[in-house]
Amino acid sequence: MVRRYELAGGKIVESQNEQSPILVYVNPSDAEKRYLTEELKLDEHTLNSSLDPDELSRLEFEPEHVALIFKRPKNYAACDNFLFRVTSLGLFLFKERLVILQTEDIPLFEGKPFIRGLSLPRVMLSLIYRSIFHFIEHLKVINMLSDSLEQKINASMENKYLLNMFILEKSLVYYLNAINSNGMVIDKIKNNTVKIGIDGDTQEFLDDIFIENNQCYKQAEIYSNILSGLMDARAGIVGNNLNVLMKTLNIITITIMMPTLVVSIFSMNVPFPMQHHPLAFLIALSLAVISGIGFLFYWKRRKW
User: Fold this and answer.
1) Is the domain of 262 the same as that of 225?
2) Last residue of a domain, which of 219, 240, 261?
3) Which pLDDT belongs to residue 304?
4) Is the pLDDT of residue 23 over 70?
5) What is the total count of domains within the chain?
6) What is the DSSP string of the chain?
7) What is the DSSP pairing of strand 98-102 with strand 86-93?
8) Statement to judge: residues 224 and 253 lie in one domain
9) According to the model, what pLDDT value does residue 281 have?
10) What is the pLDDT of residues 259-285, one digit of tens each?
11) Segment 193-207, tens digit of pLDDT
């Protein structure tokens, strides 16, 4: 599926014009891939890489265009079960055309970066900035989820909350790798501004993108370290709670075992002192109760 856009009044608007300067392909069909490789001369490997969620970010210079692959967060859904994924976005910048390849049909041209003074290189950089902003928003959600899971772990010993924390930690590892990969591409863009066609005003915007991406990486790194520490701490707390529970159960078992032993001895089918005494039953019962109470005082004195 292809959508066409053009620049009108400094804004990006959808168009039906076949010669529109911005083309957005969502999961291109085989026929659309043939058009891109045969007519626009896109490298087939680079084209397929831009649709591969495991592909690393990179910047390549072809004879007639610049090929850029960068990472962006995949839209999160409840069915993902706390796993935040990343996907790839392909940008192919020609002199008078920008081709965008993506796997999800999501709105691209939203937010402040797309409302003023746009050129094709500026649109390309704005998409990178939008991706960084998307990462930051997801990091806030991950932080909120980790706080909620932390409270549930404090009140429960169920393994599922620890597993959810582990999945969040796994998501942050993917995010760190993607953000770091984007950072290397942004650095390469900064070193090739003339070759890409970035003017002075856009250069300042590129500097802002570089700073935002570094801050995003630091934020993800902090969340990852905190979550990793929480995982270790919570696992230790759960293990300690289990030890306390087992100790309590053992104390109860031993305390109950002593009265049972006393009663069992007096109930054996052999001669015992006081077996013909009229209060023999009460004496045996009293000894059983005293033994139980005695062990309770013993445990208390030992501060167990």
Assistant:
1) no
2) 240
3) 59
4) yes
5) 2
6) -EEEEEEETTEEEEE--TT-SEEEEES--HHHHHHHHHTS---HHHHHHTT-TTPPPEEEE-SS-EEEEEEEEPPP-GGGTT---EEEEEEEE-SS-EEEEESS----S-SGGGSSS--HHHHHHHHHHHHHHHHHHHHHHHHHHHHHHHHHHHH---HHHHHHHHHHHHHHHHHHHHHHHHHHHHHHHHTTHHHHT--HHHHHHHHHHHHHHHHHHHHHHHHHHHHHHHHHHHHHHHHHHHHHHHHHHHHHHHHHHHHHHHHHHHTSSS--TTTTSTTHHHHHHHHHHHHHHHHHHHHHHTT-
7) antiparallel
8) no
9) 65
10) 776 666 666 655 666 666 676 667 667
11) 888 888 777 888 889
pLDDT value of residue 101: 92
Residues 144 and 172 placed together within one structural domain of the fold: yes
Instruction: Say if residues 108 and 130 touch (Cβ distance below 8 Å).
Output: yes
pLDDT recorded at residue 197: 83
Domain carrying residue 154: 2-240
Quote the tokens at residue 295. Answer: 């062990």
